[in-house]
Amino acid sequence: MRPLLLGVCAALFFAVSFVLNRRMELSGGSWAWSASLRYLFTLPFLMAIVAGRRRLKPLLLVMAERPATWLLWGTVGFGLFYAPLCYAAAYAPGWLTAGTWQITIISGSLLAPLFGQWMTGPKGPIYIRGRIPIRGLGMSLIILAGVALLQIEHAQHLAMTQILLGVLPVLVASMAYPLGNRKMMELCGDRLDVFQRILGMTLASLPFWLLLGIYGLADVGLPSPGQVGQSVIVAISSGVIATVLFFRATDMVRGSMSGLAAVEATQSLEVLFALVGEMLILSSSGPSLLSWAGIAVIILGMILHSLFSQRSGTTASTGPRMKSRISPPSA
Fold this sequence. Notes:
This protein is mainly alpha-helical and 331 residues long. The protein has helices at 2-26, 31-52, 56-65, 67-89, 94-101, 104-110, 134-155, 160-188, 194-204, 206-220, 225-252, 257-265, 269-281, 289-318, and strands at residues 116-121, 124-129, 323-325.
């Protein structure tokens, strides 16, 4: 249950991004600055945390082993995740962006065959490739059905341009985030903790954010003081607190694809948190009866995911035990 609780808390802090990014867009801020400032402001906080724990040097040594790989998956996991979300906020309300983002629940499950583990069994080391958790995927579809109900009434009032520009970038982000996260878990193994891995990915994606900041400067000039202030809030809430909570939760279930799917499913609650946030901050209208039905379906899907995850963990504990390895054995 602890990984799921951490996932729920992460969803709460992640929802701040959807609400404040939309607010910055409505006030005339640039999506490029919203994206780049979050990570530029996140960097010093993470540096202070990792350096304070005396784990900065080990991180830099690990990154120096495969810098190109860090650059690639750091940019995919952070750059191609957050920049499209900020771009979508320029064309769609926060609730629509948060709702479409829930496709990451399915995206994360579908990526399972791309990953695997070396296991030490009775006949020696073997490589076990991940499998798509079919039952967990079915429960994810229940959650997505609830998200669809939550949005049906609102989507009817949007132009096709808003739908496409507000949806397609989020689809890209929904694949990039779990792909980058899992690739980095596979690369790091047990050598780095959550804080080190997040800082490493932030450092690796820094060239992307600097280029995006240059684009924002050329497009609209310097960001306004209001956008800078709100970006600091997003950096602390989503860039530090939410990311640490979510990565910690995925680390706790890294050996179970059904567990990973359950943790990633907790992010569906971002829709609810974003909806409440927009009602309080942006004075948006409350949900209709149909939307409340969608909320009920989402909660049902979350409960089923939790029960399935617990049952899978119990079953796994009674089976044959094998020692997990992150990297292949040496010849």
